Amino acid sequence: MLLFIVRNSLPFMFAFAILGFLVPSASIAFFPFLPAVLFTLMTLTLLGMKQNELIQRLSTLGVWLYSLLHSAVLMAIVGGVGWWLELDGNLLLAMVAVAATGSLFATPAIVRALGFDSLHAMAMTIATTLVLPVSIFATLVLFQTESVELDWASYFTRLIVFIFGPMLFSFMVHKVTPDEVLGRFLLKISPYTILLVFAFPFGLVGSFRLLFDQDPMMALKYFGIATALCGLFFTLSYFAYRKQGKAEALTAAITSGNRNVLLTYSIAGALLGPAFLPLAGALQIPTYLLPVLTRWLNKVLP
């Protein structure tokens, strides 16, 4: 049964988003455990990568140009369209904050499940996370009127714990463990790391279900906006990188479509306004449908 789930992990991600929506009490109860799952996933994913190669990828201009597309360009587009449509201020703030958000830390595991370059996806994920403080600060300055007081200590603590901590741990393990021993260990566990990804759609969708129970029409509106945002991020990134090949374009698209809204909320909290958490919950359903869509596109696109 476990092997069946691993082989069909992409549709199961979407299924867990639906399950979290159907059982909101379990989803909300599981939400506090997501940081621990996040750390474990990052550590196991980084163990399977050579840190010197990851640093080399991070030092390339292309990765940082992608981070600008992922945040600044998409923030400008979302903000401009929202301003043109005269959207409610809280909703517009939430939408731009989503556009400012870095890629989900689970992205490399998803990219690996798709058969693409997970090392490149990891470099792009880290780059978009590192530019997040600037992006979210700009969002708050431009789209809300309260004094901007970001929780920098919390952000840098999480940055150390979830990125530099696992990188350092991976470096030390590679340094002291024979390649043959480490290789056998990773060969046994690597197929199962994708199971940890299921926790994110399950644990985050509960806030959207609460909105649905209170105001179904408003929830459907948020779901439509979340789907449009995911589609926008995915499509623009795909076409921006299409000339570099199908694999590169789909990697950029899925990396852009996945957004680490949990980390963004931990930094800015209530400054993001009352619309952010429901929108973040609504994002889980289209976000975890994207890997299934990407696998299909990989088969049908030339």
TrEMBL record:
Signal peptide: none annotated. Gene3D superfamilies: 1.20.1530.20. Keywords: Membrane, Transmembrane, Transmembrane helix. The chain crosses the membrane at residues 12-42, 63-85, 91-111, 123-143, 155-173, 185-208, 220-241, 262-285. InterPro entries: Na+/solute_symporter_sf. This is Bile acid:Na+ symporter, BASS family. It comes from Marinomonas algarum. The lineage of its organism: Bacteria, Pseudomonadati, Pseudomonadota, Gammaproteobacteria, Oceanospirillales.
